Amino acid sequence: MQRRFKLWILWALLGANVAWAQTATDSAVPTDAEIRAVLADRIDVQKRSVGIVVSVIEPAGRRIVAYGNLAKGDERPLDGDTVFEIGSITKVFTSLILADMVQRGEAALDDPVAKYLPEHVKVPERGGRSITLEDLSRHISALPRLPSNLTPADPRNPYADYSVEQMYEFLSAYELPRDIGSKYEYSNLGVGLLGHALARRAGTDYETLVKSRICEPLGMESTSITLSAEMEARLAAGHNNKLEPASNWDLPTLAGAGALRSSTNDLLRFLAANLGYTETPLAGAMASLLSPRTPTGAPNIEVARAWHIQTKDGVEFISHGGGTGGYRTVIGYSPQSRVGVVVLSNSSTPIDDLAQYALDRTSPLMEAPKEHTEISVDPKIYAGYVGRFQLAPEFILTVSAEDGQLFTQATGQPKVPVFPESETEYFLKVVDAQITFHTDADGRATSLTLHQNRRHMPAKRMEGEAPPEPAPKYTEVEVDPKLFDGYVGRYQLAPNFILTITAEDDRLFAQATDQPKFEVFAKTATEFFFKIVDALITFATDESGRATALTLHQNGMNMPAKRLE
User: Which pTM does this prediction carry?
Assistant: First the structure.
């Protein structure tokens, strides 16, 4: 599961989902030797993981290729029975339990989730509409990705101390920022709440519910939350992106969002049932997870009930990824080719490209980040690049030039500078992405290509006037810069997500984890706003003027953050 929510998610619509180049055919699926060579390069040469297991299920049978070790410094090899944290793949299991309950007549998709919670819990409503079980399954509940009162005692195990009562308190106080069902927003909170409600309906705990409804019928004996001593011995140790040991995660309250551990062999059994290779009483419930569908905002990608579905040329790839502090996982299949893949890694570096490759050997593999060298060009050429370029129906890249610097701004994102490595090729420093301009004889760009996440996305120039920019929401006032000394510090918004406040030359700046630094402007002596995004920070101070906490106000959410001492 994704453990962060970000203040600014640069290029989010373009980078959030796996892009599957094409659906596999028998000739496109790589051999075991080809997969093993790729894994050896990834682990031994690129040093991007400690151990990876790739598996393919196809009409000819099942294949498993494992490479690497259980832990750094541990020579024990991985295999199909090695146990991994599978993170958000758990969400598919949660939605399948819902579908099974519906088929048994134990629940209805349009049941309000409040029906299965204690009477004192006030689940937010909007426009006379209640959040239903289906809304939670499809990520259209209007609940946020994470609750704002998730403030872990140990960021290395961020969900461990989040209690049921805290979840109830958040729900009872939260105001929905938009109509229920109006928009997709991926929500760990929403699916965690769904798993909690279904367990209450069944009169048991979430783990027991998964085992009795899914694991036992499918013969999945290595899928659970609580590990036996025997499973513990088969657990691959997690590592961060620097291949340092990472803590395992516990999700007692939001278990339905990402608490399960499993093995490659068990997940292949799950895929076999979804693909119809094995008979199961869950077949009808599994089929029901694929509709209805809601656009995610990313090109050709929709969300159904937990599964994300990319369609190209009428061919579908149905998938879900997962990630915790030290693991990355992907499961997916194509109903047309009846080929499925499982990729499990015991480090937090991305593996989506390996899943793509396991389906199609021609799919490009992730390379080490390329070094880009900035050169000097005549800023006069920028006049030909300024304009709006359409990457998707509602996703525009706006290119502008100011004071000899070229900038680009994606829909709903901040404006960031781009730097030339040739007269027509530019790179971003805040994220690994590049832009190539395609010009006519007069040097005017008629289109551009955005290169990111191994994708090359063309965008034609949009002719006509751009819509006027909205008037600023806040008015800047002058304040004594000496106040800033009390605000400078680090504030924890979420597990592993910090807002760092700094002051330079009588100006105040805010920088979120893995994001660029942006200036904030005084609305009052304690309230500061961004000009690049609709967001406001309020500082809470003690008698000396030192901030003890702050609250970030954005997208209808008020997110408190304590100062880190």
Answer: 0.71
